[in-house]
TrEMBL record:
It comes from Dothidotthia symphoricarpi CBS 119687. This is Prefoldin. It comes from the Eukaryota. Residues 5-32, 76-103 form a coiled coil. Transmembrane segments: none annotated.
Amino acid sequence: MSIPNEALQQVLQEINQKKVFAEQQLLIIRQQKAARTREDRMLQLTSSEVSSLPADTKVYEGVGKMFVGTPIPDVQKRLKDESEALTKEMSNLNKKEDFMEKTYANSRDALEQMLKGSS
C-alpha cells in the first residue's frame, strides 16, 4: 500500500514545520539561558561586594530615577530572592530546552524515515 503523493507531501511539510519551530525555539531558549546566566553572575558579584562592606556602610538602591537608602540585610535578602528566582527560571528553561531538543530530534528522525521510505 502506497501513500498518495499529496498526502506524503503534506505529512513531510508538517514534520518539517515542527522541526523548524523546534529549532527556532531552541535558539530563543539558549539566548534566554545566556541572559539569565549573566544576570546570575551579576547578582553573585553584587552580593559578594555588599557582603564585604562594613555593617555601618550606607547602601543605596535605585528606584526609578532616584536612590533610596536601604539597610544591608534588606539588600542581601533582595539579592538572595532574585538569585533563587533565577535558579527556578533556569530550571524551567532547561526543561524546555530538553523538550525542544527531543521534539527537534524526533522530527528530524521522522523526516529521514519518510524520505528513506519514499525512495
